[in-house]
Amino acid sequence: MVIALFIFGCEDIYDPGIESVEPLLVVEARIIYGNIYNEVRLYKTIRFNDPANHFPPASEALVTLTDDRNSVIILPEGLDGRYRLMQNLDPRRRYRLKIVYDGETYESEYEFIPELPSIDSVYVVPATKLIETGNDESARNLRKALGSQLYIDIKGTGSESHFRFTGRKIVQYNYTAADPVLRPPMEGTMFAWTTLYPSDMFNIAGPPEYSVSNDIIKFPLEFMERSYTPFIPDTPTIFMGWIYICQQYALSENAFNFYQDLNSQLSAGGKLFDPLYTQARGNIRCTSDPDKIILGNFEISTVREHRFYVQWLRNDDYYVKRIPYFWNIPPEGKVFNIPPVWWEYIGKVYPWQ
User: Fold this and answer.
1) What's the rounded Cα separation, in Å, for the pair 228 and 241?
2) 332 within 8 A of 195, measured Cβ to Cβ
3) 138 falls in which pLDDT band (50, 70, 90)?
4) How many other CB atoms are there within 10 angstroms of residue 331's CB atom?
5) pLDDT for 211-246, tens place per residue?
6) In 187-207, which positions are buried (b, 16+ CB within 10 angstroms) versus exposed (e)?
């Protein structure tokens, strides 16, 4: 007991002090040309150990867009530091974001409106991918998935050479079931589907560094697994292929570099030479106090939606095609005996054909 008291009596808990710094202004300003409604969101950072679960909004700021002819658009404030843009922009002009808040003035560089993006070709290549099944990075939480990698080629023209992609994958499957309405029950085919949202980092594409061409060749857009069983109920089913809905955003080179920096930070593992959060190269500066740090970026993008259908045939053979119709597809559901109008399969004839 004396020895134990001696050991515990020497224990001294060290509580490292974390320097409390002034909250920084954060700007989320993604303007999508052609959208009826856009917004600029302003909020402030919180301390590392702050128990608050939300970032305080930066209200009562003056937020404006100014074009290269000095025409000014005032963005009125809504709720929670959200400033609304409810008019379209002129594609022939360049625009700069200006924020006056808490006695300081912040201004971005001028951003142009990119051309509407496009994809020249799409194809699949058989591939194998290691997929994490837990938070631990050890090998026991990785599984090997067989499937196909969806690639695209984009021919760069003018300002259209930097892109960001978002999307969702819809897995289609069939199984035998009884009609939930008819009495007595009658068996038939249930057409079911569910949605997966890729959770990787920002999926961005740009021309190769030091290249004289703006062409983007064989860009890996999304991986389509051959084994669909991890995503659907544990019942005898027939796999009916993937529908991939993709939004392609055309960006300026400044916005592309900003997303590159964010990806570097998101992939950091806490090593000595990992990038710091202040090293994301945003295009907004404090003009009233050049030493003041501001986080965030101002971008103007254009967007085009693409849809693809991918089906595994056998061995390493895959079928891929573009979907020309853009029906509204719920995240998940099932329909008895009659497939939804948007249901995809090989050889489908569309309404105008």
Assistant:
1) 9
2) yes
3) very low
4) 11
5) 777 889 999 999 998 867 656 666 678 889 999 999
6) eeebbbbbbbeeeeeebbbbb
Q: Hey, what amino acid is at 215?
A: D
The two tokens of residue 101 are 């808040």
DSSP 286-352: ESS-TT--EEEEEEEEEEEEEEEEEEEEETTEEEEEE--------SSEEEESS--TT---TTPPPTT
If you search the block for the tokens 């099944």, which residue do you land on? 133
Cβ-based neighbour number of residue 312 at 10 Å: 22
What global pTM score does this model have? 0.85
Cα 73 versus chain centre, distance:
28
- What is the rounded CA–CA span in Å between residue 268 and residue 38? 31
Phi and psi at 349, nearest 5°, equal -100, 125
User: Where exactly are the structural domains of the chain?
Assistant: 21-113, 121-251+303-336
Q: Is 132 exposed, middle or buried (0-12, 13-18, 19+ CB in 10 A)?
A: exposed
Tally helices (H) and strands (E) across the chain. Answer: 2, 18
User: What dotted CATH number matches 21-113?
Assistant: 2.60.40
From the centroid of its chain, how far is CA 92? 28
Largest CA distance in the chain: 91
Three-state secondary-structure class, residue 191: strand
Q: Which two tokens stand for residue 191?
A: 């057409």
Q: Which residue has the tokens 């095609």?
A: 321
